[in-house]
Design brief:
The complex is a heterodimer of chains A (104) and B (564). With 104 residues, chain A is α+β, with helices and mostly antiparallel strands. Helices cover 35% and strands 30% of the residues of chain A. The mean pLDDT of chain A is 85. Chain B is globular. The chains are: A alpha+beta (104), B alpha/beta (564). The interface between A and B is medium-sized, with 13 and 14 residues.
Chain lengths: 104, 564
């Protein structure tokens, strides 16, 4: 899976503390540092104490910085780059969104 | 023990060793102040919340411990943000506590409500919105642990009013938060670094604020001496090397000496310690140390490779790494490189030109007059760069400056914090007529607390560094950089109950000495030439070796306008 310019995307998986400010910390980091963020999936795990967050990002030379900066966030408990992860989950979201656009 | 959230917060701050807290009370922090008034904690009433943040910074920067400040919700919190951002960029450990509207009113646009939590995310290391008094037992020690651990920085605790007033039973108070033990460097990596140093012909140490935070100046000096390695410092690293050391070349960067620029250019190995390759230090990154392999040690792993990819690196505490590295390195004199460095020092040392009136001469005179144990707090602008160039800084934590954010208005409130932390030491505040006006209300705090602060205003009637750039890069199109109104700062000081003196060129030496050597508070309004420029100056986008070293009238070209 790649973006419009043909750059390959990859998925960064985070385990985060599940509280109201966490999403702001993560998305704020991306906008503040000028990193691209193509998509986010987030759901509670471990009975709701934590959340798993999947970030669809470009697999370019900035990926290392993204991972290091995410690792510094207090609410982020783990960061892994999952090259092997099936991207179809995001593909299906894209399908869903394009369907939604067709509905008036 | 039954306690309110507010009393619990105060008690937890005291258990952290906080002795002074700066701030201004307001509606949403009244319970906090009620508890404060019943405790033994000293409060310093500042006259603008930003000054409270800088006062805490002055304590933290001059002692290395974490300091605290208070503000109320809304405008109190927004006023504080600049000082917090300043602490973030210079990695200074402070804990800010802000009052917030009661939990039930959050999100309703209540009186003096802003989203302090949301606004402080980008400028803090971490922040907390406290939902219950019980959470304080975890949040306060955690805030101090975070502020002090790894790369230090500011932490904010937003405390709704109802959490301050709510009562809880506390059985055990938590242990104070302390810094985590820093990561140990890998022995094999250090051994490889030692081999690289041994193999290098022209190694150069490039050291900065991380060395100060780590307390590793002795180790840097030892490495330099043992291996014959010359040293350049960043603005934040001034004081790591004694000014007289023959291996010390001074500050590098936009207004650094040409000797440092040429040494960096010539080096075949750059040993970067506690530095982040900031653009003001490197100039054009592509042309920075073009012949050098790079060793990078920094406690923040994310700084490694952020700007310049090192050949070998370790994300660890610099002091621990150097202690071990210094036992591994082979002693060396490097006579050829030493001779070349001596040649650079002789040929490219900073010059004051012929003019007796050059502010560099004034700063050297002030430094000679000031008690040697003085702490110096400088503001932002030309005087800051002249002070960095000419004030002989002999110890770390004695030259306090806003390096990363470059916040005008920094020096007076930060100097107040240093004076509170070191009541036995004089604090010399070096400021400009532009910078002083930004926090001049703090003269009231200085007077009220009878602080030994000796304020030297280098008065050129301009925003000097802006005027200089307009001269050099914008075809002398001076816009909004000249002050038409010229306040009488000595009279203003007297209006606050502080002695004030005006010194005009040529200076009355005796009056200068008498004014600077009396116990503060005192303000000296010192005239300096209006059109003096800071040199060298690296034009935007250029490499450090391309610095302008004297006063050609450059015309602006399109290229130089693109980056600042």
């Amino acid at each position: 899976m790649s973006d419009a310019r043909g750059l390959p995307n990859t998925i960064v998986r985070l385990t985060v503390r599940n509280h109201p400010g966490t999403m702001s910390h993560v998305t704020g980091l991306f906008s503040r540092r000028g990193f691209n963020l193509e998509g986010i999936l987030c759901a509670p795990v471990d009975g709701g104490a934590d959340s798993a967050m999947y970030l669809l990002v470009k697999n370019d030379e900035r990926l290392e910085q993204i991972v290091k900066q995410l690792g510094k966030l207090y609410d982020v408990k783990s960061v892994t780059v999952q090259d092997d992860l099936d991207h179809t989950v995001f593909d299906r979201i894209e399908e869903l969104l394009s369907e939604a656009q067709r509905v008036p | 023990m039954r306690s309110s959230g507010a009393s619990l917060l105060i008690e937890l701050l005291q258990r952290q060793g906080v002795q002074v807290v700066a701030g201004i009370p307001g509606g949403a922090s009244l319970p906090l102040y009620d508890a404060l008034g019943r405790s033994g904690l000293r409060h310093v009433l500042v006259r603008h919340e930003q000054a409270g943040g800088f006062l805490a910074q002055g304590i933290a920067r001059s002692t290395g411990t974490a300091a605290a400040c208070f503000a109320t919700s809304g405008p109190g919190a927004t006023n504080l943000l600049t000082a917090i951002a300043d602490a973030k960029l210079d990695s200074i450990p402070i804990v800010a506590v802000t009052g917030q509207v009661p939990t039930g009113l959050i999100g309703t646009d209540a009186f003096q409500e802003v989203d302090t939590y949301g606004m402080s995310i980008p400028v803090t290391k971490h922040n907390f919105l406290v939902r219950s008094a019980a959470e304080l037992l975890e949040v306060v020690p955690e805030a101090f642990r975070l502020a002090l651990s790894g790369r230090q920085g500011p932490v904010l605790i937003d405390l709704p009013k109802d959490v301050q007033t709510s009562r809880i039973d506390v059985e055990h108070l938590p242990e104070p938060g302390v810094a985590d033990p820093p990561a140990e460097p890998d022995g094999a990596v250090l051994a490889a670094m030692a081999r690289m140093i041994a193999a290098a012909e022209r190694p150069l140490l490039y050291v900065g604020g991380g060395v100060v935070a780590s307390g590793a100046e002795e180790e840097v000096r030892a490495l330099s001496a043992a291996c014959g390695i010359p040293v350049v410092c960043t603005l934040m690293g001034l004081g790591i090397m004694p000014p007289e050391d023959p291996r010390y070349l001074g500050m590098l960067g936009m207004h650094g000496s040409m000797a440092t620029a040429h040494a960096v250019d010539r080096a075949d190995l750059l040993i970067a310690l506690g530095v982040r390759f900031d653009d003001r230090a490197t100039g054009s990154v592509a042309a920075f140390a073009p012949r050098a392999k790079v060793i990078h040690l920094d406690i923040d792993e994310a700084e490694i490779g952020k700007i310049r990819r090192p050949d070998i690196s370790a994300g660890c505490d610099v002091k621990r790494a150097l202690r071990r590295l210094n036992r591994m390195v082979a002693r060396s004199e490097r006579p050829g490189w030493q001779a070349e460095i001596q040649g650079l020092r002789d040929g490219h040392s900073l010059a004051l030109g012929e003019e007796e009136s050059h502010p560099g001469n004034l700063l050297r005179r002030l430094a000679a007059l000031a008690p040697s144990e003085s702490v110096v707090s400088v503001d932002v602008g030309q005087h800051q760069m002249w002070a960095a160039q000419w004030w002989p800084v002999r110890r770390t934590r004695t030259f306090l400056t806003s390096g990363g954010l470059g916040t005008m208005g920094f020096s007076l409130p930060t100097g107040m914090g240093a004076a509170l932390a070191h009541p036995d030491l004089p604090v010399i505040v070096i400021t400009g007529d532009g910078s002083l006006l930004i926090n001049i209300q703090e003269l009231a705090t200085v007077a009220e607390n009878d602080l030994d602060v000796r304020i030297c205003v280098l008065n050129n009637g301009h925003l000097g560094l802006v005027r200089q750039q307009q001269e050099l890069f914008y075809g002398e199109n001076y816009v909004a950089s000249r002050f038409e109104a010229r306040p009488d700062f000595a009279a203003i000081a007297r209006g606050f109950g502080i002695r004030g003196h005006t010194l005009r060129l040529p200076y009355d030496e005796e009056a200068l000495a008498a004014a600077l050597c009396e116990r503060g508070p005192v303000l000296l309004d010192i005239e300096v030439p209006e059109m003096q420029n800071v040199y060298p100056m690296v034009p935007p986008g250029k490499s450090n070796v391309e610095a302008i070293t004297d006063s050609p009238r450059l015309t602006a070209d399109a290229g130089s306008r693109s980056a600042t």
